[in-house]
Automatic annotation (TrEMBL):
Residues 356-377 are annotated as: Disordered. It comes from Larkinella bovis. Catalyzes the removal of dipeptides from the N-terminus of oligopeptides. Its EC number is 3.4.14.-. Pfam families: Peptidase_S46 (PF10459). SUPFAM superfamilies: Trypsin-like serine proteases. Residues 362-374 have a biased composition (Polar residues). This is Dipeptidyl-peptidase. Belongs to the peptidase S46 family. Keywords: Aminopeptidase, Hydrolase, Protease, Serine protease, Signal. Residues 1-18 form the signal peptide.
């Protein structure tokens, strides 16, 4: 085995050394490295005309905006009929759907279809938001921030101004009754106020079985060709009746052709494409490896636990962790790709050069040198005249260097239950309480309300989380670290975790009550092993957290200034990072080379059955009984397709529409090559994976017999 490993390493070394060396000086930034997530505040009419040969007017964009929805606070959706029918993904609906199942039902196993309006089930606490009003508030917010004399004061003034704006607009007739939200673009380069109409009466109409909605499971996640029916339907009710709306996307089950332009409208959650190279290197070296390690170890612990309990909620948590694990893994691969990082560096140099030229053309501007100051020292220039700070990149890099110093203590010693387990975090809270009680008895009384002994989900799961934490901390902090020495005491992490769990009394509420009654001195002097660990970790974490908080405040203001500079230089030619606010992005239906062959632009139901039989019907490629004898006509129907659109988490449930504002698809995933999209968009490799609207209609017609929905959507 050792010989084989050596041989493989040698082969890899020869292969790598045979590749042409990357010359960063020859790498150029791509025209869409910052993405295509255009805002409805400044819709890209001229760009669409130039690129696709059609010029949508303002009414086109208004209708698209009004047909688009935010599905709770985590997904996207859209109206697809005049009777308030809402389309979103199965994976967005999974918790909502199972939340309305009744005794004896298993909707993950059977799926759900309401044959009549009366059978549509209201989902408690579910809502959808429709964006009705938009207002630019940039000048007002930036003028207020300019009065701040420090980073912290600028941010405080910004939050106060946000609150004042919402209160003021909330009393205006056109905005009254709307859900108001301030939106930050370009990290603070622009600001907007959005007003949403919130619909709280949302009812489940149709949800496929989990085996179809999540067909292929984690192995097929972020891959293509793909065969998943990741769709669901809900309906909005108004005063107890289906909502009547003229703003919706008509269904077109035959509307996809290769190289046809398509548009995604939805709420992309978060991207970080404006981050500097120094910040991305921090993510690559520290943040992403830690997150991946954390997710992997916790998912494994939950899998072991769920073999005993077989709980749907735990299984959904595992699905979520595995999804995140694959997503962050793809991001880290992208950050470790020298070519992609060279493209980011090339854009940074290009941006600096453009800013330098702009500064030179102004002639009289003073350069800002203070960290986090958006104006030159003491100046109060008009907000429309932004003083360009060409040292922003240096200041951001210096802050990142400081963050690296505090990263381990701030991360591995933080009071996070996912990272350190319930009991060790509870020990952290007890030690903090004792310290506060000595210094500020009034504040201690507030903390005391939180001192309720955690109810452990499972002792074995708690021990597994603790063992994982000790292993992760040992690797990061080193064996000579005082915390690691005290925690392990010469044992391996797994053995040490077992010892700590066997000897702690922090799961005994009576014992805790006695400690608190005796006072801070008793807590500080108690020899419980978890309390002993917390007494080492708490002061270190507090010092690190305080430093990181201050650095992050500086970073927020610096990033805001960098965003203002980006907008000053490029205007709306570069769209802002995603902020879970409504966007529209463009692309074309297009396959791509993969695995030595070519991925077709669309797949068919025949491929679904090929996967089923190829894996002998084993989960996650299993199928419900009613799917096992399909009519021949179904096999020919399209199922999924790919396009070059720019999406990220939060876009789940976004409709794909054509130039006629017809729904032709439903976005639910990306390919593996799309995962670096958090920090760079590479349209020649990136693909959005969608359910074909023809597949949705075919499934309802041939399998679910949902004729009333087919008629509602396509009229026959």
């Amino acid at each position: 085995m050792r010989f084989l490993l050596t041989a493989l390493l040698l082969i890899e070394t020869v292969f790598v050394s045979a590749q042409p060396a990357l010359n960063p000086d020859t790498v150029k930034a791509g025209p869409f490295d910052m993405g295509k997530m255009w805002t409805f505040d400044t819709p890209p009419q001229e760009y669409f005309q130039k690129t696709y040969g059609f010029t949508p007017d303002q009414k086109w964009f208004d209708e698209v905006r009004l047909a688009s929805l935010r599905f709770a606070d985590y997904c996207s959706a859209s109206f697809v009929s005049a009777n308030g029918l809402v389309m979103t993904n199965h994976h967005c609906a999974r918790e909502s759907g199972t939340g309305v199942q009744r005794k004896g039902e298993d909707l993950n196993h059977t799926g759900f279809f309401a044959k009549t309006f009366a059978e549509e089930r209201k989902v408690p606490n579910l809502y959808v938001d429709q964006l009705l009003k938009l207002e630019d508030i940039t000048t007002r917010v930036q003028a207020t921030m300019a009065n701040g004399k420090s980073d912290a004061e600028q941010l405080q003034l910004r939050e106060r101004e946000f609150a004042a704006i919402k209160q003021e607009y909330g009393n205006q007739p056109d905005w009254k009754g709307l859900e108001l939200q301030t939106i930050t673009f370009y990290n603070g380069g622009r600001y907007a106020l959005y007003g949403f109409k919130r619909y709280n009466d949302v009812r489940l109409v149709l949800m496929p079985e989990l085996q179809l909605g999540f067909f292929g499971g984690d192995p097929d996640n972020f891959t293509y060709p793909r065969y998943a029916l990741d769709f669901s339907f809900f309906r909005v009710y108004d005063n107890g009746k289906p909502l009547k709306t003229s703003h919706y996307f008509k269904f077109n089950p035959n509307g996809i052709n290769e190289n046809e332009p398509v548009f995604v409208t939805g709420n992309p959650g978060s991207t970080e494409r404006l981050k500097t190279v120094a910040e991305l290197e921090f993510d690559r070296d520290l943040k992403m490896p830690y997150i991946l390690q954390l997710l992997r170890n916790r998912a494994e612990a939950l899998q072991v636990y769920n073999t005993k309990v077989k709980n749907d909620s735990i299984q959904n948590e595992i699905f979520s962790l595995e999804n995140s694990l694959k997503a962050y893994g793809g991001q880290l691969d992208g950050l470790r790709d020298p070519y992609l990082m060279a493209r980011k560096a090339a854009f940074e140099q290009q941006f600096k050069a453009e800013a330098q030229r702009l500064e030179g053309s102004r002639g009289q501007s003073k350069l800002s040198t203070g960290s986090g100051r958006s104006l030159s020292e003491g100046a109060k220039a008009p907000v429309s005249r932004f003083d360009i700070n060409l040292k922003l990149w240096d200041n951001l890099a210096a802050n990142v260097s400081e963050l690296r110093k505090y990263y381990n203590d701030n991360t591995y010693l933080s009071p996070s239950e996912l990272a350190r387990g319930d009991l060790l975090v509870f020990a952290h809270l007890l030690v903090t309480y004792a310290e506060v009680a000595r210094q500020n008895p009034g504040r201690a009384e507030q903390l005391r309300e939180l001192l309720e002994t955690p109810k452990l989900t499972d002792r074995g799961l708690e021990e597994a989380y603790l063992a994982a934490h000790l292993s992760e901390a040992q690797q990061a902090l080193g064996n000579d670290d005082p915390y690691i020495k005290a925690a392990l005491n010469g044992k391996a992490p797994k053995e040490a975790a077992a010892y700590l769990m066997n000897n702690t009394k922090l799961n005994d509420q009576g014992y805790i009550n006695d400690l608190i009654t005796k006072g801070p001195a008793a807590i500080s002097g108690d020899n419980d092993p978890l309390l002993a660990l917390a007494r080492i970790s708490v002061p270190r974490y507090q010092r690190a957290a305080s430093a990181v908080q201050q650095i992050n405040r500086q970073q927020t203001v610096l990033r805001s200034n960098l965003g203002r500079l980006l907008y000053e230089v490029y205007g709306t030619a570069i769209p802002p990072d995603a902020t879970f606010s409504l966007r529209i992005n463009d692309g074309v239906v297009k396959g791509f080379p993969y695995n030595g062959t070519v991925a077709p632009y669309q797949t068919t139901f025949a491929g679904l059955y090929d996967r089923y039989y190829s894996f002998q019907g084993k989960f996650p490629w299993s199928l419900p009984k009613r799917w096992l004898n399909p009519p021949a006509e179904l096999l020919r129907q399209p199922m999924c397709f790919v396009s070059t659109n720019d999406i990220i988490g939060g876009n789940s449930g976004s409709p794909l529409i054509n130039k006629n504002r017809e729904a032709v698809g439903l976005a639910f995933d990306g390919n593996m090559e799309s995962l670096p999209g958090s920090f760079i968009f590479v349209p020649d490799k990136n693909r959005t994976v969608s359910v074909h609207t023809g597949a949705i209609v075919a499934a309802m017609r041939y399998i679910y017999k949902a004729n009333r929905l087919v008629i509602e959507l396509v009229g026959k």
